[in-house]
Amino acid sequence: ALNKVLDENEVLKIVDVEKGKQDSVEIVAKESITDLYKKIDGLAEITYDIEVDKLKAPIKKGEVVGKLKLKENGVLTKTIDLTVKQDVEKANIFELYIKYLKDYLG
User: Fold this and answer.
1) Which of 22, 33, 96, 32 is nearest to 59 (CA)?
2) pLDDT at 52
3) Cystine design at 57: which of 46, 53, 73, 90 (Cβ 3.0–4.6 Å)?
4) Per-residue confidence (pLDDT) for residue 19, from 0 to 100
5) CB-based contacts of 5, cutoff 8 Å, min separation 6
6) Mean pLDDT: which of 3-12, 35-44, 46-55 is highest?
7) Each residue's pLDDT tens digit, 90-103
8) How many Cβ atoms are within 10 Å of 21's Cβ, its own excluded?
9) What is the Rg, in whole angstroms, of the alpha carbon atoms belonging to the chain?
10) 3 state DSSP class of 20
């Protein structure tokens, strides 16, 4: 039987973006993850670790920004690419200045 472990649209983490029009972006898997298991064995204990690079705008949806390491019963079984849920445009000088002022005065 198949067990859906993770959907590709499921937000795994929210990460800060340097010099972006937005301050942070949602991280998602590039593909859905399903687990094939035998009904006799039952479901395995599935865990995962997320490693995301330091993000700097611009970033396009689909661009690899990190890895998800899937573990079954503590054993690494698969590594999946991570991407951003939506494009992040680079902020212009004026936008960066406004952000800086908000942070400074905030």
Assistant:
1) 22
2) 96
3) 90
4) 94
5) 33, 34, 35, 46, 70
6) 46-55
7) 999 999 888 888 88
8) 16
9) 18
10) strand
